[in-house]
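SEQUENCE, STRUCTURE TOKENS:
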Amino acid sequence: MHRANEGAGPGLPGSCTLVTTGTANSSQMNAEISGDRIVWEDYRNGDADIYLYSAGSGIETRITNDSSDQKYPVISGDNIAWLDYRNGAPEIYLYNLQTSALTTVTNSSTPKMNPAMSGSIIVWEEFGRDLSILGCTT
């Protein structure tokens, strides 16, 4: 995964910074960005975990370490949400970077997919149902 240097516009030559390095046994995918923070799904430990990279500091942080998969991260400000498979069916989890609080947002057997977030609002789809919208206080 690469990020273009500031000042390099779309289609313009510029230098890039390597954020992650995949191997034959791992991959990184589903990157999202908010400000100078980038989150993605990473398989380097054998299952899908969520990682954060701060472009401002150059520091990478592993956000999840459960033995099940955590996938499709989204980030808005200090909040990261993702699909978490630790209880079987995917549920939405929320992590606050300032408080380190981990919150289970959903808890039902209906599979969730396609989370999106802006500010304190999280939306997702539930299989066989309508779009769900939740305003979270963080």
About this structure: Residues 2-6 have pLDDT under 50 and may be disordered. The radius of gyration is 16 Å. Residues 2-135 form a domain with the Neuraminidase fold (CATH 2.120.10.30).
